[in-house]
Amino acid sequence: MPPVMKDEVIEDAFATAARVTGPNAIEHGSLELVTCNDKPQGRTVVLRARLAETGAPVVVKRHFGPGASDVTTHEIRKSRQIARGLDGPLHRVPTIHQHIPAENAYIAEELRGPTLQSRLLTKNVSREALLDPIEQTGAMLARVHAITPEERREPSLARFTSFAETFAARAARRGADDPGHVLARRLIELLPRCGHLTDGFGLTHGDANPRNVLLLEAGLGLIDFEQAGKRIFSYDLAAFLVRIGMICDPDGTRGPLPEPFVSRFERGYGAAVADDPVVRLRTKLALLQCRDWEMWDMPDEFPEKAQRRARLDRMMRQAADDVEVFG
């Protein structure tokens, strides 16, 4: 079967939104494309629109691929669970208006505001202006981690070893000296010494990325719950700190944890996390995952691909050299 072209996927998503009837019917002419992303499990299309009855802004999200039904159902369930746990004016999660199971799609409230990532990338925004949102993000993640998870799955060191072995196998295809291969092999050596790696376990966002944090008029918004689930909390903490480091230190020369953002994030989260051995080890795993995502999402002809690859490689070399993980 020939692969589905991206234009066809986008057209199908528009058609899905146009077919909605009732109180969530979409206003004619209001649909516009936000993103169409390739992911390991398939494609995801996000559209922006307005409701015909009220003019309220909404997003329409549709998943494509073999597991699209499960991904959609999981995302809606986790979104609602986290929304209940974050109930309050300072931390918002978009309300799900309608699930469209036959088309692996849903309609949700659109929270209006720039992403934290866009603010971090804006050159005329001072670092001081970013400290409060970063501290608030720490507080928001702490509240997510305080929510009682629905899953019964327990942590296992075998899962982390398997995770590192997967990246080692992928990186090995690029050569034994590939920074990702070197780092993954070092992690596989270290993991058996990490009985404490499973401490601090519960509900996580799963993609704690500055692009999923919205700066609202009052407080913050949190979006994108495809990866939410029961994990060690350091999964979220390391992912956020690595992404902040990639944005603020694009050359990868100062390491993945920039100051003063780290101390303000820790103050919001309510714990010193950056020097925690588990977070530091999980940060290394996050670096591997980041490069895998960057390489997956970015076509070869994209002009910044080589630059991003080089940046992540430098950060991974630095992480592989940092063998004093356990203090």
Automatic annotation (TrEMBL):
Keywords: Transferase. InterPro entries: Aminoglycoside_PTrfase (IPR002575), Kinase-like_dom_sf (IPR011009). Residues 54-274 form the Aminoglycoside phosphotransferase domain. GO terms for molecular function: transferase activity. It comes from the Bacteria. It holds the Pfam family APH. This is Phosphotransferase enzyme family protein. It comes from Tranquillimonas rosea.
